[in-house]
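Sample 1 of the test manifest.
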Amino acid sequence: DAMVIQNPRYQVTQFGKPVTLSCSQTLNHNVMYWYQQKSSQAPKLLFHYYDKDFNNEADTPDNFQSRRPNTSFCFLDIRSPGLGDAAMYLCATSRFRETGYTDTQYFGPGTRLTVL
Amino acid sequence: AQTVTQSQPEMSVQEAETVTLSCTYDTSESDYYLFWYKQPPSRQMILVIRQEAYKQQNATENRFSVNFQKAAKSFSLKISDSQLGDAAMYFCAYRSGTASKLTFGTGTRLQVTL
């Protein structure tokens, strides 16, 4: 089945130790998103890629970076995790069409990040 | 900026009964989409139902239907014949017509009891 896959599902890191979260998709979608979801809160968009074009949200901290080496993969790098970065990180994909409209977003299962 | 408000942090429904989850939004745009997403505990978020603003007819997907009141900027979700598997966090979300970004509400946690 076509899907959005996130690895690992659970990640524990130490305060200040860089960490990378991975997302892959078999849907061949041209848009990939990273959301941060803290406990009992709504998902908050960090950034998204349209193909290789990177779009950062204005309030996303510089501590968060992303890479998309190809259509299928996208990575979230947290350069110096703080205790406040403990959250669920959701990857999502969608297709942006030539008409200018974006189809429905499909979400991965998320990676739960714990910062010690 | 668009905002999405879900005023019910938690709801409870008995199995086989009907429940309605509320959502209101604020926008000055005429071209937009509205969504209800379901996030079961420790499982991924999945799309429940989608409504295009230009469509007057309310969207329906099996036991799930919406009441879309464009003038009132209201978008409620009705779940009929509730099942135990419907227990989850439900998020209402808004997307501008030509944008990619989803704006989510704060969610409603639905409990289904026997």
